[in-house]
Every structure is written in C-alpha cells, then in structure tokens.
Amino acid sequence: WPEAWLMPDGECENQKAPNKCEPNVAVSVEELQALGINYWKLDAGAYEYPAISVPWDPSDAVDPKLSQLRDDRGYSYADIITVHPEKLPDYDNKVKAFFEEHIHDAEEIRYILGGSGYFDVRDKSDKWVRIHIKAGDLMTLPEGIYHRFTVDEDDCIHAMRLFKGQPVWTPFNRPQEEHESRVKYVKEFLEEKK
Ligand code: KMT
Ligand code: NI
Questions:
Q1: How many other β-carbons are positioned within 10 Å of the β-carbon of residue 166?
Q2: What is the pLDDT of residues 74-131, one digit of tens each?
Q3: Ion ligand 2 — residues with CB < 5 Å
Q4: Is residue 21 domain-resident?
Q5: How far apart are CA 106 and CA 125, in angstroms?
Q6: Are residues 100 and 118 in contact, defined by beta-carbon separation less than 8 angstroms?
Q7: Pocket of ligand 1 contains residue 113 by CB under 6 Å
Q8: Which of 4, 18, 82, 122 could staple 146 via S-S, CB 3.0–4.6 A?
Q9: Domain that residue 162 falls in
C-alpha cells in the first residue's frame, strides 16, 4: 500500500508539498480500507504503455495481472493521461481544478504508470488523508467519497483511468450531501454499523 498521512487542519498553502503534520501522523491500511479504498500493486515498468494521453483499449492489457483485474471487476474502458506542464494543455488551471473537493457517481480507478501524485480523501472525522501514489499503484476510490488530486513537487504523473461502462468523469463539487452517491457512501462507510 502507498504511504498515507493526515494533513494539517486549514487551507494548504502549497498543494504540491507533502503537507504532513508535525510530527507526522501516519494513516494505516485498515483505515484506508474502512473508507472503501482498494489497492493493488502491479509492475508498471515491465510492460509497454502509450507515452502520451490517448484512449487505450483495455483488451490490449499486456500485463496478465491487469487483465485479471479488468475481467474480475468489469473494467471495459481505459485511457491514459499525462499530467505534466509540457504535455497537458492549460496545465496550471487543470491542476487547480483536479484539487477542488468533489465526488463522482461512480468508482474512480487509477493505475499509475509513471511519476507520482497525491490523492486526498476525507476520513471518518472529515479530515484530509493524503495518499502518495507512484508507478505500479492501482487504486480505486468508492463512489461518493469526497476527494481531490494533485501532482507532487515533481510535476509529473502518467496514469491509466479505467471505467466500468461508458466513462463519466463529471466531478460534483462539495457540498453534495443530498446527492444519491453521497447518501449511499455515508450509509455504507461513515454511519455507525448497528
Ligand atoms: C483525477 O482523478 O483528478 C485525474 O484524473 C487526474 C489525473 S489521474 C492521476
Ligand atoms: Ni475525482
């Protein structure tokens, strides 16, 4: 699992900095799992993937572990995105937009092929947990979880985005307490189990 930690309260001045507490407060795998996050480690360096942002046919999965995940979980769509100042048009605005707190009405699946970045998710106390993802990390965020993304100080991430069915990446910015996906998430992961 990737390294995860609690972020300090309040606005973060530099989203690309690690933003750890002093002293650091590590977040355990169990805590991440309890929020509905799934994780697999693959070997991204062992196979060839397109070097730039392109649609990618998931039937092309050359990595048997990736094909297995695709089949087990029903991922039928994939594309590849490169977030880098020279490869993503309108880079600074995109990086700002990815960092707006939002939910989706479907699971968010990212397989990191190169570079690194941070996914921040809200924990059970509504605090930000920062997850440092790197090449080989395949992570899913459940439908309805509040989250955001940023590159780290290296300013480069190369990732495959997978989806079940026709992809819809629409972000619904917070607050979304009445949104069906949010209601479902709160019921399944945040309410006390009786
Ligand atoms: C997201 O979910 O914010 C993105 O797709 C950004 C690039 S993927 C690591
Ligand atoms: Ni998202």
A1: 7
A2: 999 999 999 999 999 999 999 999 999 999 999 999 999 999 999 999 999 999 999 9
A3: 108
A4: yes
A5: 23
A6: no
A7: no
A8: 122
A9: 1-28+61-166
- The residues, any chain, with a CB within 8 Å of residue 156's CB and separated by 6 or more, are 82, 83, 84, 114, 115, 116
Condensed to tens digits (0 to 9), the pLDDT of residues 53-84 reads 788 888 887 899 999 999 999 999 999 999 99
Check: pTM over 0.90? Answer yes or no: yes
Number of domains present in the structure of the chain:
1
Instruction: Return the CATH number at 91.
Output: 2.60.120.10
In testing the pocket of ligand 1, which one of 79, 120, 140, 161 has its CB within 8 Å of the most ligand atoms?
Answer: 161
Q: Is residue 82 part of a domain?
A: yes
ipTM of the complex: 0.94
Is residue 86 domain-resident? yes
Identity of the amino acid at 41: K
The answer to whether residue 189 sits within a structural domain is no
Which helix (H) or strand (E) is 29 found in, with range?
helix 29-34
